[in-house]
Structures are given as C-alpha cells and as structure tokens.
Amino acid sequence: MRFKLPLIAILRGIRPDEVLAHVQALVCEGYDAIEIPLNSPNWQEGIGVALRHFGARALIGAGTVLREADVDALAGLGVRFIVTPNTRAELIRHATQRGLTVVAGVATASEAFTALDAGAQMLKLFPAGVYGPPLVKALRSVLPPVPLYAVGGITTATLPAFVAAGCTGAGIGGELYAAGQPAERTREQARAFRESLLACTR
Fold it and tell me: What is the reported pLDDT for 160?
C-alpha cells in the first residue's frame, strides 16, 4: 500500500456525527490517507461511518492502536491501515497477520529496525517536532527505502525541512484538525499542507 498524497490526516477527537463533513473536506483536497485515532469518542462508529461513505475513495485508518483486541476489531470493520505511537513487535506482527498495513511509531534506529523486522511496512518518526530533521537524515543513512513519515508538531512551515531531510511525507494532527472546529477550517488547513508539500517536491 502507498498513499498517493503522502500526508496522513489525523482527526483526533472527532465525533461520529462530524466525520462525514470533515472526511469529505479532506477527500476534496486530494487526501487519500485519513486516520481516526482510537482515543476519539465512539471511534468504532466514527471509523465505520468513514468507511461506509468514503472507503472507495480514500484509505481509512486508525491511530493510537495499542492492543491486539483493537486490531481484531479494526480488521472486522474493514480498516486498511493502522498507526501506532510506539514500537511493539507483537502488535505489529498480529496486525500484519490480519492483513493490515502498519505505520509503526519509532524514535530510534533500534526501534525502526525492530518494527521492520516485525513486518511494519511504513515508519512514523514520533514526536518528530521534538527530534527535528537531523534525526531524519541520520535514520535515512541506515534505513532501507521504506516510507518514513514525520508526525507530531509538524506545521506548514516545518514540513519542507523534514521532506528535504528524507521524509516521505507527514502525519498532521493538531495543526490540521482540532476537535469541534468547522469542516471549512479543516479544508483550509488541508489545502495549506498540500500546497506546502507540493512546493517542496516539485
């Protein structure tokens, strides 16, 4: 699995009744990787709504996945990918055995290779805003050519530096979506991030 637009839209805290408007806004801006974290209200219902209405147009995933039982529930819903905040080999192996793509959270080279050995297909440097682009460059010097996403504190201003250092793209959360905000605000921020990415990859 590859994301056509290498920006993972993170809708942390979204309620099921808000999902349609915000996912629609993201899809209209060309986003095809949309993550609803499991610490969002009634996440099973929210993810189900997103899958039913947009599953044919975008890859709907789940974030902050910590338990094998949640992996099983997500696989049953029809989720295509999961995102973890940390590196746990048992969880990664279980998810890949269930046919899910795993974007595994890492902070060191050791964690990155542990995640890859367990079957993770993509990596997320988290919290990237704390570590900065120099760590991306260092990791790229030893990692295979696996997709690497910067996540945590990424802004439209800092995104280009992470891409220049070797990131495939980014996962964008708080700068994209805040719980309760209007869908139009989500679309404006989504457009700004897409334009920032395209400007540094032309």
Answer: 96
The reply to whether 148 falls in a domain is: yes
With respect to residue 1, please indicate whether it lies within any of the assigned structural domains.
no
Domain interval for residue 21: 7-201
Residue 63 β-bridge partners: 37
Exposure letters 130-157 (e unless 16+ CB within 10 A, then b):
ebbbebbeebeeebeeebbbbbbbbebe
pLDDT tens digits, one per residue of 143-163: 999 999 999 999 999 999 999
Q: Which of 124, 175, 184, 188 is catalytic?
A: 124
Residue 2 counted as domain residue: no
Q: Is residue 56 in some structural domain?
A: yes
Under DSSP, is residue 83 helix (H, G, I), strand (E, B) or coil?
Answer: strand
Q: Does the active-site annotation cover 4?
A: no
Could you confirm whether 35 is annotated as catalytic? yes
| Pairing mode of beta strands 148-151, 169-172 | parallel
CATH code: domain of residue 188: 3.20.20.70
| pTM, to two decimals | 0.96
Over range 124-141, report the average pLDDT: 97
What is d(CA 2, CA 121) in angstroms, rounded to the nearest whole number?
10
